[in-house]
Amino acid sequence: MAIDLVLRRDWSARAPHGDYTQLESTKGVKVHYTGGRVDPGIVSDHDGCVALVRSIQAHHLDGNGWVDIGYSFVACPHKRVFEGRGLHRLPAANGPGLNAGHYAVLALVGSSGLVEPPDGVLHAIVDAVEYARELGHAGKEIKGHRDGYATECPGDSLYSWVRRGAPRPDGPTPPPETPSFPGRLLSYPPVTRGEDVRTWQRQMSRRGWELAVDGAYGSQSRDVCRGFQRRQGVVDDGIVGPVTWRLAWAAPST
Ligand SMILES: [Zn+2]
Ligand SMILES: [Zn+2]
For residue 197, which of 174, 227, 175, 220 has the smallest C-alpha distance? Predict the structure, then answer.
């Protein structure tokens, strides 16, 4: 099971407006789309995914008066899975009386604009489903919002994929998109702290380097940086600048 989770703090989720209803298990997962227009520009801009998820949460909190975003997870084109309410919490998106039956996974596609789900979205949905089965006591069902509820959701394209059993797309998994360079050097000493440090540490950890993903760039991060730089054949100054940053995502894994 490989899942690339975007934790709530990573997308600057607002705090819930109350307590969640706990959920022991579900029959499975229901798949959703946004129902509105999704800007196709998000396919090449993960920051656009983050902004969209934040706006959906704001709509559910302030417009619908829900305790939180209605979805358990959100799947984006970059094969990443946003943590919504998460596991073992009752979602709100399936419709009255239908929430306890299934976790709710939103795909970032819409009824106009980005309509056809990119492969990364489909992979991310399957990642979320496997994660919910493994850790959230979700059963085998994969359904669409329109199953048992009068709605177009999740759109014809996603729904036909769901009906085919939600297979993973053929072909290689797309490489992760490089996040934009934070615009400052990550170095030690003194310790550099921030979400940009955490982003880099998480990527290095994904590449197999052993380091704490704690948002603090200290001696351990510097040593990992040096080792990586040597392996990449660039100056091993132990400082994450634009080149070292880009290589962390773009360089082939060995
Ligand atoms: Zn829906
Ligand atoms: Zn994304």
Answer: 220
Please tell me whether residues 157 and 56 are part of one structural domain: yes
Of the listed ligands, the closest to the CA of 107 is: 1
**In terms of pLDDT, which residue wins out, 29 or 176?**
29
- Cα 57 to Cα 82: distance, rounded to the nearest angstrom: 12
pTM higher than 0.85: no
Q: Work out the average pLDDT over 180-194.
A: 96
Tell me how far the alpha carbon of residue 145 lies from the centroid of ligand 1, in angstroms: 5
The domain containing residue 227 runs over which residues? 192-250
Task: Please identify which residue in the block is written with the tokens 């084109």.
Answer: 77
User: Which-ligand-closest: CA of 151?
Assistant: 1
Separation between Cα atoms, residue 4 and residue 6, nearest integer Å? 7
Q: What is the CATH number of the domain that holds 142?
A: 3.40.80.10
